[in-house]
Write a structure and sequence with these properties.
Layout lengths: L12 E4 L6 H9 L4 E5 L3 H10 L10 H9 L10 H9 L4 H15 L4 E5 L7 H7 L4 E6 L2 H11 L19 H23 L4 E5 H6 L1 H12 L37 H4 L2 H17 L11 H17 L11
Parallel strand pairs: 1-3, 1-4, 2-3, 4-5
Helix pairs in contact: 2-3, 4-5, 7-8, 8-12, 12-13
């Protein structure tokens, strides 16, 4: 039997973190628990409510427009619900949060599981807002050294089909690495602020290096935090899906946890390391990573100063535009 109270309201967990921090790995582990289904990057919860609220209130009364906005949201289909199921969920809800809860009840049932959650990385910037809607929900903030995140971002963000994450910011064209440092710093700072506000009973901070190096120990911590019985299936999420000889990213090949896929110490230039630490060293240090506070060279200092000037002139550090999926 699960230790979670049977009255627990779905979604019971949000898996969050700066993009490229390994949140898909975490989602796959969570989703492989026999009692928990975790959706992948649907994004709709805050996008729909932002349209519905228009600056008023916290949890709007349900309307036909909210249902239509939900159905038409471009990523909502990832939840796997049909229109009839969505409209039925709305009929039994008075407010938006109740509607969302009903949707995740159905989502869990479709997977034969009583509990359900959501993984949307960008929600790390909105932990308090989500908690106000779902007071019993818990959050797992997956954190990764920003320099390893940057190595991944530089391959992922600027594609011909569309720009992602920090590549959407104007300064990217001038200095992608510096832009990523500001973006990562902003994202992690917002998540840590949310964690401090809610406290350890509602927010678990988990490091990517721990999840990879000790999957069993990490998933035991997660189960204890969520009140779920431990299942070794979580650490075996890749079984029957892994394709180590294939092409593409580790994510696409469903690789088991693999240390060393990104290592800023060997894969990042000295100057880029100086720039990243110059812009995000304080957050690196607070997050538990070595900020490498050696004196930066002239070229690195010029890049640091240019990035700081841009962020201040455009108000980027005070806004929310850094966390874009």
């Amino acid at each position: 039997m699960s230790n979670v109270m049977t009255t627990a309201r779905n979604p019971i967990v949000f898996a969050v973190g700066c993009a490229r921090s390994g949140t898909t790995l975490l989602q796959r582990m969570l989703d492989n628990h026999p009692e928990l289904a975790v959706a992948n990057d649907t994004h709709f919860i805050l996008s729909v409510i932002d349209k519905a609220l228009l600056g008023d209130g916290n949890d709007p009364i349900m309307t036909a427009k909210i249902v239509d906005d939900t159905l038409s949201y471009y990523r909502f289909s990832r939840l796997g619900l049909n229109e009839a199921q969505v409209r039925a969920a709305a009929e039994n809800a008075r407010t938006y949060s109740g509607f969302v809860s009903n949707l995740y009840d159905v989502f869990g049932s479709l997977h034969g599981k009583p509990f359900a959650g959501e993984k949307t990385p960008s929600y790390c910037a909105s932990i308090p807002k989500l908690s106000s809607l779902f007071p019993d929900a818990k959050f797992i903030h997956l954190m990764r050294d920003g320099r390893d995140v940057a190595l991944s971002v530089l391959e992922w963000a600027d594609r011909r089909d569309r720009k992602r994450g920090p590549a959407r910011l104007e300064f990217w064209e001038q200095d992608p690495l510096a832009t990523t440092a500001l973006w990562w710093s902003r994202s992690v700072r917002r998540a840590m602020e949310g964690a401090d506000l809610l406290g350890p009973d509602l927010v678990l901070t988990l490091h990517h290096r721990e999840l990879v190096a000790d999957s069993e120990g990490s998933t035991r911590r997660v189960c204890d935090f969520l009140g779920l019985r431990y299942s070794d299936a979580m650490a075996r999420y890749y079984e029957g899906k892994e394709n180590p000889g294939g092409t593409g990213s580790a994510k696409r090949r469903w690789l088991r946890p693999t240390p060393g896929l990104r290592d800023w110490r060997t894969q990042m230039s000295v100057e880029d390391r100086e720039v990243f630490s110059g812009l995000a060293g304080d957050v690196l240090e607070v997050a538990g990573y070595d900020p490498e506070r050696s004196a930066a060279g002239d070229s690195a200092n010029r890049r640091i100063n240019a990035a700081r000037a841009w962020s201040l002139n455009h108000g980027a550090l005070a806004g929310t535009s850094f966390q874009t999926a």
